[in-house]
Write a structure and sequence with these properties.
This protein is of the alpha+beta class and 549 residues long. It has four domains: 254 residues; 100 residues, Immunoglobulins (Immunoglobulin-like, Sandwich); 72 residues, Immunoglobulin-like (Sandwich), CATH 2.60.40; 104 residues, no CATH class. It is built from eleven helices and 25 strands. Strands 19, 21, 22, 23, 24 and 25 form a six-stranded mixed sheet that branches. Strands 4-10-9-6-7 form a five-stranded mixed sheet, with no helix packed on it. β6 and β7 form a beta hairpin. α1 runs antiparallel to α9, α3 packs antiparallel against α9 and α5 runs antiparallel to α6. The longest helix has 36 residues. The termini are far apart. The N terminus is likely disordered.
């Protein structure tokens, strides 16, 4: 769908912002607040636009009060009719907002939450159920409210065109649609067509392509399972479209009696990005355009810059910005818009910023049956949510006496008792719990040197200074200690001799027993106990038998 050259430009661009935000729906409180900020901005913009329309209508009324302008009085009636039609429509939207807010849990000011006061309502409604999706789905989809709204938008649009068309066709000569001494119907029709094409109040039929055939209606596509706080600015957007259609009608009709003017409200750069998260090696692309654009503003009077670089502006007030996504992390674009009024020479400037994040392609693979945390050691984990900044991901743990430390995707978990642990991850609209089992460190293997049993040379055996616990195949940084063991020497034709040893290092008696070793002797290391990190008490591990050769 082509974008017209009238104030509709502002509304379409703002709608794109809302739709971009909807892609990240449910991500965080910050995004919910962003919808509220957009709604507040639109409402304030409507107030400013309405004042400008009032001023223009007053100026037109003053012109028509002159007897020399008597023949132009039908314009005043048409202006009043258009404004009445828009007022009725906007009142209906306001009532629909009230219905949604009340149904979602509004208490009409009983909650002290100034951030969620709804400014477009004299009762100072508070948006209690801002995340409520059931109410919007029920009222706007299931109960047909969205279908009625779609039909009403089409009806109001046509009514405005009819009002404008009627006053033009009934006063073609008065308004100068004359060519060669005859009424120029083609010129009148072209004027009417231009007005109709630039009315911003409309239903974008691209929803059918965007939904890939998964939605049966515009209402289903726009409102199903949408939080209340995201629906409100969309409804306000229709009020703003209507208000701009009203401004268009009043402006166009005023031009016919010599009341043409260019009214500048608030100017700001609008950036419509395809993505706010870009894969490393790809390209960041966005449309940068001027809010409140007017067809009377030549492109040469518009200066749009990104990070100080001026962009070429097209006839529709748009500029395209591209940049290579090199380097990982958050990138900031500093936007500036400067507009020169072609009638007065007045210069208006506004600035804003836009942040996007550059990431890289990644894949997370986990073995469900090996999700294990070990007692007594640091258990490292990595957490990521595709398309969501690591700073926006919240991670918590519960169960097993767990403790979680770290951040930015890298964490360490410690546990102190057997059981189950859950790692809770939230971000980007995702809420997920991943279960882990808690185990103690595996039993170490008692060894002399590098042997657990078998034959050993007399010299090698005597060179050992104690029993060592080995954690074989355990990748964590953990060390176990030998608590003690019983050593028994069995020599040929002699009675067994034993020594009870505390700790892993040989005590004096055990040392004498080892030094007495001769080929043919057999040594038994029995009742070997070890203690590993996290153990409340020692554990019995493997015994060893060595034949001295």
């Amino acid at each position: 769908m082509s974008i017209p050259k009238e104030p509709r430009q502002l509304m379409i661009n703002l709608m794109y912002l809302v739709l971009t935000a909807l892609l990240a729906l449910n991500v965080s409180a910050e995004v919910m607040n962003a919808f509220k900020t957009i709604d507040d901005s639109l409402i304030k913009s409507n107030v400013t636009t309405n004042k400008a329309i009032d001023d223009q209508q007053n100026a037109l009324s003053e012109l028509l009060s002159d007897k020399s302008k008597e023949k132009f009085k039908p314009l005043g009636v048409a202006v009043s009719d258009i404004r009445a039609e828009i007022q009725a429509f906007n009142d209906e939207i306001a009532a629909l907002k009230d219905q949604l807010i009340d149904a979602a849990g509004n208490n009409n000011g009983s909650v002290d939450d100034e951030d969620y006061l709804y400014p477009d309502n004299p009762a100072k409604k508070i948006i209690i159920g801002k995340k409520n999706k059931d109410v919007t789905t029920r009222l706007l989809v299931n109960d047909g409210g969205g279908d009625k709204l779609e039909a009403r938008i089409a009806e109001v649009r046509q009514n405005i065109v009819d009002i404008y068309s009627k006053v033009i066709n009934e006063n073609k000569e008065t308004f100068g649609f004359i060519k060669g001494g005859k009424v120029d119907q083609a010129a009148a029709d072209a004027n009417i067509a231009s007005f109709a094409d630039n009315i911003s109040l409309d239903i974008d039929q691209n929803w059918k392509e965007q939904s890939d055939g998964k939605k049966n209606s515009w209402a289903d596509f726009r409102f199903r399972q949408m939080p209340l706080i995201s629906v409100l600015p969309l409804l306000t957007k229709f009020q703003t479209d209507a208000k701009n259609a009203e401004a268009l009608g009043v402006g166009k009709l005023s031009e016919l009696v010599g009341g043409k003017q260019i009214v500048f409200n608030q100017f700001f750069p609008v950036i419509n990005a395809k993505k706010a998260y870009v894969i490393k090696g790809g390209k960041f692309e966005a449309e940068v355009s001027l809010g409140a654009y007017s067809s009377d503003i030549p492109p040469a009077n518009i200066n749009l810059t990104v990070n100080g670089k001026r962009l070429p502006v097209g006839k529709d007030g748009k500029a395209v910005f591209t940049d290579a996504a090199s380097g990982l992390g958050t990138k900031t674009l500093n936007l500036s818009a400067t507009v020169t009024n072609p009638l007065t020479g007045e210069v208006s400037t506004s600035k804003s910023t836009f942040d996007y994040e550059v990431g890289e392609t990644s894949a997370t693979v986990s073995a469900d049956k090996m999700n294990v945390f070990y007692i007594g050691v640091d258990n490292p984990i990595s957490v990521s949510v595709a398309g969501v900044s690591s700073n926006a991901v919240k991670v918590n743990c519960s169960g097993g006496g767990c403790n979680l430390k770290g951040g930015k995707g890298k964490y360490t978990v410690t546990v102190n008792k057997p059981g189950d642990v859950k790692i809770d991850v939230a971000g980007g609209g995702l809420s997920k719990s991943v279960p882990f089992r808690v185990k103690r460190i595996p039993d170490p293997v008692a060894k002399l040197g590098k042997k657990a049993d078998g034959s050993m040379g007399n010299g090698e055996f005597k060179a050992q200074r104690g029993v060592i616990p080995w954690l074989e195949g355990f990748d964590f940084d953990a060390k176990c200690q030998i608590q003690g063991f019983n050593l028994v020497r069995v020599a040929k034709r002699q009675d067994p001799v034993s020594s009870n040893n505390s700790g892993g290092t040989y005590n004096e008696k055990t040392t004498r027993l080892v030094r007495a070793a001769k080929p043919g002797d057999t040594y038994y290391f029995e009742n070997v106990k070890a203690r590993c990190p996290g153990d409340q008490a020692g554990r019995k591990i493997n015994s060893m038998v060595f034949k001295i050769k």
